Amino acid sequence: MIHFNVPPVYGTEEEKIHEVIELRKICGDGEFTKRCNHWIETDTGCAKALLTTSCTHALEMAALLCQIQPGDEVILPSYTFVSTANAFVLRGAKLVFVDIRPDTMNIDENLIEAAITDKTKAIAVVHYAGVSCEMDKIISLAKKYHLFVVEDAAQGVMSSYKGKALGAIGDFGCFSFHETKNYSMGEGGALLIHDGKYADIAEIIREKGTNRSQFWRGKVDKYRWVDIGSSYLPSELNAAYLFAQLENAEKIFNDRMESWNHYYSGLKDLAAEEKISLPVIPENCTHNAHMFYIKVKDIEERSRLISYLKDKDIETVFHYIPLHTAPAGLKFGRFHGDDRYTTKESERLLRLPMYYRLKGEDIEAVVGGIKDFFAEN
Fold this sequence. Notes:
Oligomer: single chain
Radius of gyration: 21 Å
Number of domains: 2
CATH architecture of the largest domain: 3-Layer(aba) Sandwich
Structural class: alpha/beta
CATH superfamily of the largest domain: Type I PLP-dependent aspartate aminotransferase-like (Major domain)
Largest sheet: 8 strands, mixed
Number of strands: 13
CATH class of the largest domain: Alpha Beta
Shape: globular
Low-confidence stretches: none
Strand content: 5-15%
Order of helices and strands: HHEHEHEHEHEEEEEHHHHEEHHEHEH
């Protein structure tokens, strides 16, 4: 069986976890959490990084930092995971979905301005497959209309746009370290803060609404409940597992990129014959080989291909069902403009097995299976 995903294990995770146990410090904000935060700050150039229990929680923190209130509107793509939307719905916001670009599956930057109203508070962008949205245009619009930009960079660790790390371009960025991501702690994430003026309040939100972090640094003489917040600190055991991978991030990156290029090379003939479409990486973007997907003719052909590959013991999956078509999406949001691409392109997309240490012969088997399908059909 060629599995769709195998969680990354570099090989030094157990050693790091034993170090945590020996230190007798397994709750949040210990030495390994600090190392992970520092790694993210150094790699991305953000002013402050805070490890969280999930990307979902990082997004919730971002919504709190944007001071989203009931009645505010947030513009976002419909083609995304529910966490992007839930973070703002929990604060009472109305979602305004905008169509995507068919090349990158990212929000169409040219459709955002028409969706802005006097109630718009933020633009939430999603860097699909670790490929950046057109951030210059989006940041320009945000400045023009005084809006926050939240980057859902769950899939974007070690990707960049014009040399700038994803997650560190907008006001707030959110990483995921779920087991399906390039670097994992099982469940986990991080909040990236562009402007250091938000660092103190972010720490308060993350520490259940208390100024505990400032207390431990000696900035206040006692810690108290000072604002709203929740418990967004991951265990040191999870942080240690993650750090084993972050300190070897380049090796994991190179391994995944080799697999991505192997797929691309193997499938480009089918793309030239217009039987499938391959991922598009815009000129100004550096991706991280988070995902390899193909697009087929339609949902019927995709279903047949999934079944065909399954019979060959190859796991492949489709991805998001557009949020604006879901019951909660209809309840909490609206689609601005025409759905030209969101639904159509989402029904064509098929994700192939992709993970650290994916074997070359397995990639060949997947490529061969896809070629066999089209030869027989």
